[in-house]
Amino acid sequence: MHHFKKAANFVPGGLLFRLRANLHWVRRADQHRHSTELEAYGTSMQLLDAYMSATASVSSRHSAMKDFPSTLAVDAASCALRGGDVRRAVELLEQGRTIIWTQMTRLRTPLDSLQTHSGHAAALMKRFRDLSSLLDRPPASHADGTPSVDVEAADTRYRRLVEDWNGVVEEIRKIEGFSRFLLPPMFADLQEAARDGPIIMLIASESSCDAIIIPHKQSPTSIRLPTNLRKLQTLVVKLQRTSRPALPKALMELWDDVVRPVVDILGGFARRHSRIWWCPTSVFNFLPLHAAGEYRKHGQFLSQLYISSYTPSLAALIKARRHYKSLSVSFAAIGQNCPAGHSSEFTLKFVEPELELVRSLLPPPPTVSFTKITSVDATRLRALRVLQDNAWLHFSCNGTQNYEDPFNSAFLMRDQPLSLLDITQTDLSQHEFAFLAACDTAAGDPSTPDEVIHLAAGLQFAGVKSVVGTLWKVTDATVQRLVEEFYKNFCKDGKMNSKRAARALHQAVQSLASDKDMPLEQRIVFVHIGI
Fold it and tell me: What is the pTM of this model?
């Protein structure tokens, strides 16, 4: 193990050499349960983050992630749990997941508090912002015939910018009060995510499946779940079929093996009918945890006990809770019933009535300023401008999850798709809410599950505090019913508050529960992400 460790720390070898050596160290230490196993995992997280930060484009980072074990973070957490260190397990999960999103967020870190320090600090702040802005720009795309020397020169320039940026970050850390600037957060910092209710992190690795309950002030609690990775993978396949006879049975299995063991302990941390947040990892990302229950007469259901929300990471939830008080509510409804270049099956009949329904249920002016674009007006660029200019959003259109390149997942507009990549390059840091009445907006990418790459998560990472999205395909009839019930609850007292979205969605779904004409898979398709 000594030699693997030395190779992983051999700086002249370069990041890729060191990362590969470190992964050999991880594998050997895991096989032999060596005393350096947890250290090996911790080092691998640091090296993977550094390697990804030197990769220029978002898509190339995603492609590069596929070259490394997708289970690295959950395996590291399982290792920490075996040693009884629950806090360290949480830190490793947070450090080793959503790496692509984390790196984007770093480049948009506000540094206003440095203004009050010395002139040197102010100069560092300006340098940090300038370099971050350069790194945050989309890299130039190279045509197929571009000489390799030009591509290599562009990559070299990018790496030099990264080195300069890292140097400025190191200088900022020397300033009093900034010693942990942009370093992975400690558990005490991450626990702030549970301020409004406990968070349940779910971990699935080859060695064990566990839940960690994180309360705001008490110590975290780990629970060994009575299932394994193979059973969970099979359960995902069952739930993807979403056929009427099989779905209740699969949701009962989800209750027995995952959710009920958590609920049995959760009473010590959260009162009934209060809010909880799920932070799933690995295969858990593809399970409708909010819908688990005993689908029989007088059976118990999670939705009867708690109001469920999701968060892709603890840091994302903490960031979403930063308060930006806006005096006015600018609400935009973006609809597209007939996207160009698609067959008639993509034509949506009820977009216009849906957006008018939303308008009728919102508080009137001057409380809410309402904007609507549909049909020929709802082009990619127009939608992007409206998205930037309005802090409250409702999308009614087709959504697509691109499994080959998930950053090209998109809302289909009249001329071109409004892609996830477009959204990531937009500052939505003062945005409050988005309702995504489109298919597959919270579906995710199976090849890199812990990067959580889908439209709903992208909006939250871009800054939107509260997002309602869909796990799979949704019908026009479901959207019409649920949108009406949601906005009736959301705006019932004539006020707008993005923190109400989870409860409003919960109440809307509960109101549909007795409708036996609506298929179960449609009643559980919508999820809430964020505050």
Answer: 0.89
The token pair at 351 is 């977009």
Half-sphere exposure of 125 (CA within 13 A, CB side): 16
Write down the mean pLDDT value for the chain. 90
Report residue 480 CA to chain centroid gap.
26
Residues 264 and 303: beta-carbon distance below 8 Å: no
How do 417-419 and 410-412 pair as beta strands?
A: antiparallel
CA 477, 482, 485, 486 torsion: positive or negative?
negative
pLDDT at 97 over 90: yes
Residues with Cβ < 8 Å from 177, sequence gap 6 or more? Answer: 113
Q: Which residues pair with 62 in a beta bridge?
A: none
Q: CA 178 to CA 126: how far, in whole Å?
A: 16
Nearest to 225 by CA among 276, 169, 265: 265
Q: What pLDDT, in 10s, does the model give residues 342-390? A: 777 778 989 999 999 999 999 999 999 999 999 999 999 999 999 999 9
Which helix (DSSP H) or strand (DSSP E) does residue 399 occupy?
strand 399-400
Which helix (H) or strand (E) segment holds residue 423: the answer is helix 420-424
Which string of b and e fits 406-436 if b means at least 16 CB within 10 Å? bbebbbbbbbbbbbbbbbbebebeebbbbbb
- DSSP codes of every residue in 512-525: HTT-TTS-HHHHT-
Query: What is the sign, positive or negative, of the torsion defined by CA atoms of 254, 256, 258, 263?
Result: positive
Tokens, residue 334: 């973006």
CA atoms within 13 A on the CB side of 418: 31
